[in-house]
Amino acid sequence: MPKVTNIALAGVGGQGIILAGNLLAQAAALSGYDVKLAEVHGMAQRGGSVITQVRFGEKVYSPTFGKGSADYLVAFERLEALRHQDILADDGVLLLSDTIIQPITTATGSAPYPRDILDRLKKKCPRFYSFSAEYKAEKLGNPKVANVLMLGVLSIFLEEILEAVWEEALELVVPPKHLELNRLAFAEGRALGNQLAHSQKVNSN
Amino acid sequence: MKVLLSGNEALARGAYEANVKVATAYPGTPSTEILETMVKYEEIKSQWAPNEKVALEVAIGASMAGVRALVAMKHVGLNVAADPWMTLSYTGVGGGLVLVSADDPGMHSSQNEQDNRYYAKMAKVPILEPSDSQEAKDFVGLALQISEEFETPVLLRTTTRISHSKSLVELKDRQWTPLKKYEKDIEKWVMIPAHGRLRHLVVEARQKDLSEWIWKSRINHWEIKDRSIGIITSGVSYQYVKEAFPEASILKLSIIYPLCEKQIRLFAGEVERLYVVEELDPFLEEQIRALGIEVTGKEIIPETGELSTEILRKAFSPKEESLFKNRPKPLAKRPPVLCAGCPHRASIYGLKRLGLKVTGDIGCYTLGALPPLSGMDSTVCMGASIGMAEGFTLGNEEYEGNTVAVIGDSTFLHTGIQGLLDAVYNNVNITVVILDNRTTAMTGHQEHPGTGKTLRGEKTKAVNLSRLVEALGVEKVTVVDPMDQEKFKKAVEDSLAYEGPAVVISRRPCILKVKKYSEPYQVDSTKCDGCHSCIQVGCPAISVTGCHVAINQTTCVGCGLCAQVCPQQAIKKVGETSA
Ligand SMILES: Cc1ncc(C[n+]2csc(CCOP(=O)(O)OP(=O)(O)O)c2C)c(N)n1
Question: Which of B4, B33, B307, B437 to probe the A interface (max A CBs under 10 A)?
Answer without folding.
Answer: B4
